[in-house]
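User: NADH-ubiquinone oxidoreductase chain 3, Anopheles sacharovi:
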Amino acid sequence: MLMLSIMATIIFIITIVVMMLATLLSKKTLLDREKCSPFECGFDPMNSSRLPFSLRFFLIAIIFLIFDVEIALLLPMVMIIKTSNLMNWTMTSFFFIFILLIGLYHEWNQGALEWNN
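Assistant: Predicted structure for NADH-ubiquinone oxidoreductase chain 3:
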């Protein structure tokens, strides 16, 4: 029991020494404006907070999430092809992909995917 407590004390002391050396030898500056300011997704946090938010950025993010979830639903369909009825699997897959393509066409037709406007 005595040996275990001695080992624990030695490990604790070595840990403290290494942490103190890492703190002293690191080249961290505390007065850097860029590193001390919070990161706000590309917005400058030092400016006024009453600037209008880009609705196109929000729309592109929502479209990305919708299509990302749909792709996550498509991936398991490949895995179950061997265990399911081929006709049911084919009809379900084509129907789901058809809905995806209609949604993509609608977004493209509405101009939501264009960045240069």
